[in-house]
Amino acid sequence: MAPIISIKNLSKTYATGFQALKTVDLDIEKGEIFALLGPNGAGKTTLISIVCGIVTPSTGTVTVDGHDIQSDFRAARAMIGLVPQELTTDHFESVWSTVSFSRGLFGRRRDDAFVEKTLRDLSLWDKRDSKILTLSGGMKRRVLIAKALAHEPRVLFLDEPTAGVDVELRRDMWAMVRSLRETGVTVILTTHYIEEAEEMADRIGVISKGELILVQEKAELMTKLGRKELTLSLQEPLSEIPASLNGRLALANDGHELVYAYDGHGDDTGIPRLLADLSAAGVNFKDLRTKQSSLEEIFVGLVSERK
């Protein structure tokens, strides 16, 4: 099956000479949730803006369900809903009017039942007659999401959608994302809340300094790059690691713990040998626990390697 978004040889250099994107190639499959992670200034918003037809690329092509975003702009853009970072909308319009207008912009016939359902799903129905300027920041964010969904797009871009919003909106929005995927909508999100990407995404892309440095299935990424740690709680604290164990362990918690990092998927974790060496060195422990590296730790490690 052909990808719903195909990005080939894409780059962007601004008139100032700043290269925001460096030869990005990426295919996004229909119905998946794709998370794009990267520090500020990495090129996330530039990439989204090019796919949505807001910024013109320097080189390369982008197609959305087979429609070229430049030569067949209207058809490609009609497939896309965009929730931008900025709270930009007409402050003097009512919630109902601005969402209905967004639907009409893409040539969709009037459908009050669909607009009502969208507003109810985002807990906006009680605010349908309120002017945008009277709403809280969280409610304005909900309106932007409703506007992006008004024309029933098959691809939804969420650019830092939960930055600075309340827990209730975050919960509602992720419930909505799950329901959209069930209907076949493809969701691409950028986020600083890495735990959300870890929970929601099917695939993860990491971008740094305009370069897409990794694209991987989330589970495969966790398996491939995630490390495990064995933490031993000691019966008596240590001031230093015995010489026979040095190089394999790290002291933690003011000498009350020893930490051993290992590859949990390797053939030999080294744990049985380590425990025997601890016993031989007279180091006794009262408890032990293991921890898998989080996606955040993996992400920080990948970006740090590129600095």
UniProtKB/TrEMBL annotation:
SMART domains for the chain: AAA
GO molecular function (one): ATP binding
Domain of life from the UniProt record: Bacteria
Domain ABC transporter, residue spans: 5-234
The protein's name: ABC transporter ATP-binding protein
Keywords noted in UniProt: ATP-binding, Nucleotide-binding, Transport
PROSITE patterns noted in UniProt: ABC_TRANSPORTER_1, ABC_TRANSPORTER_2
Pfam family for this entry, one: ABC_tran
Homology family: Belongs to the ABC transporter superfamily.
Transport among keywords: yes
SUPFAM superfamilies on file: P-loop containing nucleoside triphosphate hydrolases
Gene3D superfamilies in the cross-refs: P-loop containing nucleotide triphosphate hydrolases (3.40.50.300)
